[in-house]
Amino acid sequence: MTRSPSGLLEAGRAAHLVRRFVDQPVLVAGDVILDRFTVGRVTRISPEAPVPVVQFQSEHVRLGGAANVAHNVAALGGRAALVGVVGNDAAGDRLGRQLASLGLDAVGLVRDPGRCTTEKVRVVTERNQQVARIDYESDVDISGIVEREVRDAATSAARGAKVLLVSDYLKGVVTRSLIEALLTARKDASIPLIVDPKVPHLPHYAGATIVTPNHHEAEAATQLRIRDDQESAVAAKEFRTRARCEAVIITRGEHGMWLSGPGIDQAIPSAALEVSDVTGAGDTVVATLALALAAGATVLEASLLANHAAGVVVSKFGPATVTPEELLRTFK
After folding, report:
1. Are 35 and 64 spatial neighbours (Cβ–Cβ below 8 Å)?
2. Catalytic residue ranges
């Protein structure tokens, strides 16, 4: 049998699980982002300042943050219900149109006239080299009627979900109230809750099934260095204790992942063959984890599938998605 690089997941089992991704319902709640790319050609340095002059060629937009997570769920065959906040502005309209064009359910998007839609504008060359980035955002926590609408939308969407997923980019949507509502829904339905975290919100996540910090976040949360598997194991256990979650997956870039949970401490080597851009790789990881758990995978199997999916997406530029066919080819 063909196995993954870690030798723990046979190709046949992987194919069985991926086929079961189809129509699995996942709730994605968190910070939605619009990623806009202004692409041009650089041929000279400005005489006004030592900066490159970018001659405009094209512009395109992609979904980022929680919206990219939902897009990844859909690309892998699942059904994503997206809950988040946008401003009453042109970027919010554009994000809504982008979601609609992809057939994504945006009924849980709440308009907040008091804030702008989170938008990252990247100026890049025709060779995908980033020259500059401009961020439009408000990171103040939502409150009042907006927070109630978000919480109610999440509670409603959770009733039809098999997995709950929080994508926290620290832009104000993931409040303690929202997490508490999802933890209640998780308990009532006995379903997993996955969190892609930010360290300042660590106390909020107590009771989650899986939390997925990258190694920088894990180091910041635990005050421990992570340079090898042994240090990963120690930091992962400490992170589980501090976050009070059932399991933790530390994503370590080119070094793969470390999974720590009840009865398991496992290194998962990287499945990436080529790294072009790591932007949005964490979104792909949590989307794949969610669908794999919904399809009946163990936490280890789900982690291995997520690792392979990340290996595909980092070969692409910008926030990207993975198809079932691309994922399964990595097992051949």
Report:
1. yes
2. 283
List the one residue out of 190, 189, 166 whose CA is nearest residue 179.
166
Confidence (pTM): 0.93
Q: What is the dihedral of CA 170, 176, 179, 181, to 10 degrees?
A: -140
Which CATH code for domain 11-33+63-118+137-329?
Answer: 3.40.1190.20
Q: And the tokens for 142?
A: 């939502």
DSSP character at residue 323 = -
- 8 CB-side CA count, 13 A: 17
The candidate with the shortest Cα–Cα distance to 89, out of 134, 122, 140, 137, is 137
Cα angle vertex 174, ends 142, 28, to 5°?
Answer: 120
Region of residue 303 (left: phi > 0; alpha: psi -120 to 50; beta: else): alpha
What is the tens place of the pLDDT at every residue in 20-76?
Answer: 999 999 999 999 999 999 999 998 999 999 999 999 999 989 999 999 999 999 999
Question: Residues, the chain, total?
Answer: 332
Which sequence spans correspond to the domains of the chain? 11-33+63-118+137-329
Return the closest-CA partner of residue 73 out of 277, 328, 306: 306
Kindly indicate the confidence band of residue 2, based on its pLDDT and cuts at 50, 70 and 90: very low
C-alpha distances (whole Å) from 281 to each of 236, 239, 276, 285, 296 are 20, 21, 11, 6, 23
Give exposure, 167-178, as e/b (b: 16+ Cβ within 10 Å).
bbbebbbbbebb
Using CB atoms within 10 Å of the CB of residue 107, give its burial: 0 to 12 exposed, 13 to 18 middle, 19+ buried. Answer: exposed
In the DSSP assignment, the letter for residue 245 is: -
Instruction: Determine the pLDDT at residue 1.
Output: 37
Structure tokens at 160: 């039809």
